[in-house]
Design a protein that fits this description.
- Its EC number is 2.7.13.3.
- This protein is α/β, with parallel strands linked by helices and 244 residues long.
- It folds into 2 domains: 2-80, Heat Shock Protein 90 (2-Layer Sandwich); 89-241, Rossmann fold, CATH 3.40.50.2300.
- 29% of the residues lie in helices and 27% in strands.
- It contains 7 helices and 13 strands.
- The strands form 4 sheets. The protein has a 5-stranded parallel sheet, with helices on both faces. Strands 1-2-4-3 form a 4-stranded antiparallel sheet. The chain has a two-stranded antiparallel sheet with strand order 5-6.
- The protein is elongated, with a radius of gyration of 20 Å.
- The N and C termini lie far apart (49 Å).
- Mean pLDDT is 79; it is low at 89-114.
Length: 244
């Protein structure tokens, strides 16, 4: 069901499941919260609602839920009504000097967008995470996001497009984010590009190890979108203000 009130679109999604306890409603949007479903044979990681909430709030929307035990739950999503903007298009490009395996799909701006953009590179092997990041950066007309699913492709892209910032997953199919960072640091063309570590496992030791290796920041999955955007804005506005 949907309705429009005061220039806001409200969508309702209802189910007839077992319902949710009142004390669990306060934590349902927290990362990795599965409401004890890990004891059952129900697959999932517990980050879907967290990601949905961050994406919705990124466009000034809201998400909420009401529930009754034994009757089911109703989620609502409230979004501001606006005019559609041109979407980004995906184009296959050939990396200079790269072999067949180093081809990469780049998310390029449409013909109607401003071409005076900064480039951010995201190295991530998980397709869902790449798609999520693509949607996040679609809201930034001042940034062009390019992506790679392996460390080798990420390094090749960094050499090709020279991004202002690189987001690097720590666990990649062909090595670690630390391995890729070391190779970037060893090349004078990419040595000064700031690299942000992105990982699902973040402890104080991980953060310390990452900083010592040369990562400027260590972000936990699911990525806090507002924190990421603030970091990028900080770098774009004043590169000297980046954390040491």
């Amino acid at each position: 069901m949907a309705s429009v009130v005061d220039e806001k679109l409200r969508l309702y999604i209802a189910d007839t499941g077992p319902g949710i306890h009142k004390h669990q409603l306060a934590t349902i949007f927290e990362p990795f919260e599965r409401l004890d479903r890990e004891r059952e044979e129900i697959e999932g990681t517990g980050i879907g609602l967290t990601i949905a909430k961050q994406l919705i709030e990124l466009i000034d929307g809201q998400i909420g839920v009401t529930s009754s035990l034994g009757e089911g739950s109703t989620f609502f999503i409230e979004l501001p009504v606006t005019h559609a903007e041109p979407v980004r298009h995906t184009k296959v490009v050939e990396l200079p000097g790269a072999d067949e395996q180093s081809r990469k799909e780049l998310v390029l701006p449409s013909a109607t967008q401003n071409h005076d953009q900064e480039v951010v590179l995201y190295v991530e092997d998980n397709k869902i995470n790449r798609t999520l990041m693509e949607h996040i950066f679609a809201e930034r007309s001042d940034i062009e996001l390019v992506m790679a699913e392996t460390a080798r492709k990420g390094i090749a892209l960094a050499l090709s497009v020279e991004p202002i910032l690189i987001m690097m997953d720590i666990r990649l199919p062909d090595g670690t984010g630390y391995d890729a960072l070391a190779k970037l640091q060893a090349n004078e063309k990419t040595a000064d590009i700031p690299v942000v570590a992105v990982s699902a496992n973040v402890t104080e030791h991980d953060i310390l190890q990452g900083r010592e290796a040369g990562f400027i920041e260590y972000l936990e999955k699911p990525v806090d979108i507002k924190r990421l955007m603030k970091l990028i804005d900080l770098y774009m506005d004043d590169r000297e203000a980046l954390p040491n």
